[in-house]
UniProtKB/TrEMBL annotation:
<dbReference type="GO" id="GO:0005886">
    <property type="term" value="C:plasma membrane"/>
</dbReference>
<feature type="domain" description="ABC transmembrane type-1">
    <location>
        <begin position="95"/>
        <end position="299"/>
    </location>
</feature>
<keyword id="KW-0813">Transport</keyword>
<comment type="similarity">
    <text>Belongs to the binding-protein-dependent transport system permease family.</text>
</comment>
<keyword id="KW-0812">Transmembrane</keyword>
<dbReference type="Pfam" id="PF00528">
    <property type="entry name" value="BPD_transp_1"/>
</dbReference>
<dbReference type="GO" id="GO:0055085">
    <property type="term" value="P:transmembrane transport"/>
</dbReference>
<dbReference type="InterPro" id="IPR035906">
    <property type="entry name" value="MetI-like_sf"/>
</dbReference>
<dbReference type="Pfam" id="PF19300">
    <property type="entry name" value="BPD_transp_1_N"/>
</dbReference>
<feature type="transmembrane region" description="Helical">
    <location>
        <begin position="236"/>
        <end position="265"/>
    </location>
</feature>
<feature type="transmembrane region" description="Helical">
    <location>
        <begin position="9"/>
        <end position="27"/>
    </location>
</feature>
<keyword id="KW-0472">Membrane</keyword>
<keyword id="KW-1133">Transmembrane helix</keyword>
<dbReference type="InterPro" id="IPR045621">
    <property type="entry name" value="BPD_transp_1_N"/>
</dbReference>
<feature type="transmembrane region" description="Helical">
    <location>
        <begin position="99"/>
        <end position="122"/>
    </location>
</feature>
<keyword id="KW-1003">Cell membrane</keyword>
<protein>
    <submittedName>
        <fullName>Peptide ABC transporter permease</fullName>
    </submittedName>
</protein>
Length: 313
């Protein structure tokens, strides 16, 4: 167990080091001078030269990269030229807003996907299985912006029971809870179908195993066979898939946040990319990679606990 954690921790540190270097080099060698990107297109050449000297941009790139990593480790994420404040004053607030969406969506996706996937896998090729499979394929195939516009047209414009935007501002007469309904619904519809199909495929495979037939021949009820023998083994493979959805829910909902004007992490990254806000882009990219690596490590650890063959090997 200790060696497992040591290897995964080393993997995390090495990945973050490589990614940080790649992010810094990409932002450094993209077209245009870094000082020009910070000051904007209307700055004079003299202003660009002064900022270049003040920021030490005329020094070797390796030296500047080491200093940048040192600042990151001490919590200094830099200054945002778009929001005119420290990145720390923006990123954590935006990240907190996104985590609210992600937590609610994850709390809905996990039980629903397990319930629908198990129900579908228990009765392969049945009418219920075909209905759930069709629902999963359709919802996953519809892009987020399309489902967002569709739901907004129905519930915001047609019926008028929900707001069309989610700015987290109570001044419009809508509660915060009502503003979260449509963004969460879009995230659930888009992500639910994929997880349901993973659970269904794993359940179908488990139901054909010899120990399931043995349990049935021993006279166990169908309910006991499913709950005591099939369900835990069926969840081994989808467990990692379910955890990896955290990466999408936290860092991949740019379209959802843009459609509903939600002040979240993804929208912040979009605005920073369009405005070439280097400090925000670098900090956000590092955090996105950190979330991806951590969820993968946690998934591997959970997979090891669920699967004795991996644990004992």
């Amino acid at each position: 167990m200790a060696s497992f954690f040591a290897k995964r921790l080393g993997y995390l540190l090495l990945t973050m080091l490589v990614v940080s270097f790649a992010i810094y080099m990409i932002s450094e060698f993209t077209p245009g001078d870094v000082a020009r990107k910070v000051l904007g297109p209307f700055a004079t050449q003299r202003q660009v030269e002064l900022l270049t000297e003040q920021m030490g941009l005329n020094r070797p790139v390796v030296v500047r990269y080491v200093e940048w990593v040192g600042k990151i480790l001490t919590g200094d994420l830099g200054y945002s030229t778009v929001y005119k404040t420290e990145v720390n004053n923006i990123i954590w607030n935006r990240l907190g807003n996104t985590l609210v969406l992600a937590s609610i969506a994850f709390a809905v996706i996990v039980p629903m996907s397990i319930l629908l996937g198990v129900a579908s896998g228990m009765r392969e090729s049945s009418r219920l299985d075909r209905s759930i499979s069709l629902f999963s394929i359709v919802t996953t195939s519809v892009p987020e912006f399309a489902s967002g516009v569709f739901l907004t047209t129905i519930f915001a414009i047609g019926i008028g029971i929900l707001p069309g935007t989610s700015t987290l501002d109570r001044g419009g007469g809508w509660s915060i809870a009502s503003q979260l309904v449509l963004p969460v619904a879009v995230m659930v519809l888009y992500d639910l179908g994929y997880v349901v199909r993973m659970v269904r495929a794993s359940m179908i495979e488990v139901m054909t195993r010899p120990y399931i037939r043995t349990a049935v021949l021993k006279g166990l009820s169908f309910r006991d066979v499913i709950l005591k023998h099939a369900l835990r083994n069926a969840m081994i493979a989808p467990f990692t898939v379910i955890l990896l959805q955290i990466n999408y829910l936290v860092t991949g909902v740019v379209v959802v946040e843009a459609v509903f004007a939600y002040p979240g992490f993804g929208r912040m990254m979009l605005e920073a990319a369009l405005s070439q806000d280097i400090a925000v882009i670098e900090a956000g990219a590092l955090f996105s990679v950190l979330v991806a690596v951590v969820t993968q490590i946690v998934g591997d650890f959970g997979y090891m606990l669920l699967n004795p063959r991996i644990r004992f090997s």
